[in-house]
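WARN no homologs supplied; continuing
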Amino acid sequence: MTVDGIPVHVIDNPVPCSFAAFEMEQAVSVEIESKVTVKWVDVRPLSAGIKPVIKEDKICFTITEPGNYSVEINGKLSHPLFIFPRSGLPKVSLKLKWDWYIHREAYYAGI
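OK structure emitted
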């Protein structure tokens, strides 16, 4: 899976489902390469109005706002891909011994 051409790690889960999370500040292009032949795709919630395009076995669509999304390939509900784009995540600063500072982003899976 890539977001604006940048690879995003997809975590497989024994539940079974997969999920990915990333930060966004504006609309992003998502591309998912499927391991199965793609006949059709639903991106939920359907109320978001996301219309995926299938190019060979790649699924392409645009997410315009943060939220919780589910990508279902060929109507197969038994192994969806959950996508959690987030915006405005808090910045975290940690002060360590000897006045070293670490600044990093804090990510939440949204679960």
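The mean pLDDT is 83.
OK
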